[in-house]
Amino acid sequence: MATVDLKDVRKVYPGGVEAVKGVSIAIPDKALCVLVGPSGCGKSTLLRMIAGLETISAGTCSIDGKVVNTIGPTERDIAMVFQNYALYPHMKVYDNMAYGLRNRGMPKDEVDKRVRGTAKTLELEHLLERRPRELSGGQRQRVAMGRAIVRNPKVFLFDEPLSNLDAKLRGQMRVEIKNLQRKLGVTSVYVTHDQLEAMTLADVLVVMNAGLIEQQGAPLDIYEKPSSTFVASFIGAPPMNLLPLRSGQLEGAVTLPAVADNAATLGFRPEDCEVGADDAALDGGLRLMANVAGVEPVGAESFLYCDAAGGRIVVRVPGRTEVRIGDQLPIFARREKLHFFGSDGKRV
Amino acid sequence: MSPRVVFPNKILPYLLVAPQLAITLVFFYWPASQALRQSMLREDPFGLSSKFVWFDNFKKVLSDPNYLNSIQVTAIFSISVAAVAMGTALLLAVMAEKVVRSRGLYRTLMIWPYAVAPAIAGMLWLFLFNPSIGSLAYGLRWLGINWDPLLDGSQAMALVVAAASWKQISYNFLFFVAGLQAIPKTLIEAAAIDGAKPFKRFWTIVFPLLAPTTFFLLVVNTVYAFFDTFGIIHAVTGGGPGKATETLVYKVYNDGFVNLILGDSAAQSVILMIIVIALTAIQFRYVEKKVHYG
Known about the structure:
The complex is a heterodimer of chains A (348) and B (294). Chain A has eight helices and 19 strands. With 348 residues, chain A is of the alpha+beta class. Chain A starts with a strand and ends in a 6-residue tail after the last strand. Chain B starts with 11 loop residues before the first helix and ends in a 7-residue tail after the last helix. The mean pLDDT of chain B is 83. Chain A binds chain B through residues 51-53, 72-74, 76, 78-80, 82, 84, 86, 88-90, 99-100, 103-104, 133, 147, 151, and chain B through 184, 186-187, 189-197, 200, 204-205, 208-209, 211, 292, 294.
């Protein structure tokens, strides 16, 4: 239905603060693009610029091939789900959903058909006569979704829509949002600071930091090949282990493959570590001895927090573990699972 | 609901509310009961004796054409003051929201008139619109309006309404600004994305959410127009020309303290009290139903 193209978009606030410092993203039709990053990285500002709620200081934002920089939010034909849902407290659920349709002059019976149809999809039918304050957090979230869907807009914008829900509900809604987005085939931009949401939802994942894009691409590509230490430590839970290299050497490592001269940091993921593995399979990989400082059994897996090579690393082992605090363990990581970053934090 | 505070001591809670109760009793219930007693007494012309006449004063007052005129004047005056003061204040508050630079200064200036005493406010307007020396009166005449509030009853009414509203606008403005600030910005943004133009946004989102504030101000403004405008009317028109701006409260003063018909005046003030109690009750009973808190 629509593509969204950002070309070198910048946002400078009147005080001189630059929140977004030149961002280019091309979101294909029907794709779900997730903007992820720590708070203050400019992701919400970027979303609000796409919505038309913030002016664009430089660069262009196009929806469906048309530059919309000077078009207000009213005419952009987008729908947005806010973090606090922003439901109209004085209107019933029905009127909340019908508001956008009525504003566009849709005939009454058509409005009714659309609202009831959407309510059915989202299982909101029994709530239509209630007011927002009579709903639970999860129900409000669904109404906010319904208000966006009912309009059948060109683009959906989500501003951390699940951050006010409890963990279980968040998991359910995540799956539901993904399914709905697929089914409706509406191009979407989704802002979150939760890397799990980002990984599971995204067709296009954009990792932002300090107003700039650190990396964009398919979620698994980013997971497998993080372009910087920032991305490496942001994507994945627990984050990638990062150990400092001193002139190509790792303090306390038993073996270490040949390292590029300019590499300053070695990274490997907790799930790529093996404890007591077969030496032959680890040819050319990393071997080091680690002192266990903490054990976290989660059930399906356990995390070992270890001191090794001048830093703290996390090792993921499947199932139960017999390892106790104070144990010394040999840790292995295969060569192809190692990541190297330069002194500027970029991948080498 | 906050949890109830339980006092272990039985007397202490009464002691704590005693000052407030004492003030209410001395300055409200006692004068009110005195007025009620006075309204059933008739004084002899020299003020030496009085006799109890039951409801004769009320009968006399309610059949007096001057009194009925005064009711009509008060209705027109109160509705106009409440409408003008609230409408203008709301407009200014909405405009003040849009001010980007020196918003604080703008707001401070808007609140100043509230600090002006009623009689001074009245004098101010009297001079500005005085047919012979007023600078704004000159402007009005220049516009082709035959401006003479000393002779024309409706013009006198317009003048006192303007003066009374002007003083109340600041107060209303303060509450409207606070009310507007309490409306989450995201609601306005959501409405914009939902395709509502600014004017529509105001009437369908902002105004309904402002209803608790508006309702509160409606009660306050009505009471203000009924009771607190005496000073302005006294300074600007003195109830005239004829009896064109003689509101109920002004008539109470005139009959009681100028003409010294104490019984009639007391009866009028009792009626006035009943009217305001009734109005407030009606407002709470019917208007509040349409108000959504939170």
